[in-house]
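Hey, can you fold this one?
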Amino acid sequence: MLQIDSEWLKKSKRRYFATFVGGDTDRIPVDPMMLSHSTVACGYSIRDFYEKPELAVACLAYVQEMYDLIPVTKYYFAHPWLPELGINLKFMDLTAPVPMNTVVTDPEDVDKLCTPDIKEIEKGYSYTRLITAMDYIKNNIPDMFVPLAYCPEPVGSAAELCGIEQFLMWTQTDMNLCTKLCDIYVNTASTGAEALARRYGSALINTGAVLENSDTMSPDMIRRISPPTLKSLVKKCLSKGAGPQIFYHLCGNHKDDYMLYPSTIIFTPMTIMQIGYWEREMFPANIMKDAFGKICAIMPSVDTKLFVMPNAIAIYEKAKQQILGGRDSPNGFILGTTCEVPPLSYPANIYSLVRAAKDFGSYRDR
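Sure. Predicted structure:
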């Protein structure tokens, strides 16, 4: 069994829970989006993270303690719930698995797609990989176990069914087709969340918006497809036993559309909102605080493009800027990264996030 320092675990849990319930703590929590950097940092490969769930979560637990991050192991992998709809994934050496096919070519194909029932879900690729990872954590690192209902970016996932270019074309010519594809993915992913909730009890709902951002769609187009799809997904997941914690990851540039979400999607008392970019820069913490701070915890972030450069001071300064801009957010603040920590990131760059949290991340102004 992997040994986790009990004193570190106690302090880290106190920080994380204080985000939602308050109480004394030494600093804000730091939660970079950790994926295959965990296996690389432990001497394994990028591919190992995706092919070997048990190894991946053991490495995740180790680096969470090593970097002094949050006490939760969250196993993310590419394209969950799409294999259940006929998408074939190929493992890659240097990236996450990639889809090798589409299942929709013509508009008529959309109505031919059938969503799997819960028994089919429980035999499928996504569910079996997730429970392999989560059972390992529960059995070997129980103090770091949090069930995860992983239902990422429903619009972008739906687009993979026909191909991104075809989907974007249909947003201009026949939005009804796009809505149908989103509904198919939502029904499949929420059934997956139900299966996980039956096995583990309440589970953290992880979702967001990636394809639909200010670089790919107009605000009006995003308004029509993204908030309604997210609301539908979260509502169905909650009704099937997942939640109440929700993590929203809005990846990419959301300068022109972030204001569409506060009044339209679902928030619970344990919701975290994370937004990646404001055009090419990190999304400002003060704007995130003003838009979301009264309804949920916020996760301002530092640009992950910086993490492959040997310049920890630059990351420290960016982290300081974000912390000072949002640490007084009324419902809590977590420091994160704009997207996945690059696998070959310099460890000093991640330590610099934590150093900034120690130096400036007090809740004294909350």
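The chain has 14 helices and ten strands. Let me know if you want another pass with a different chain boundary.
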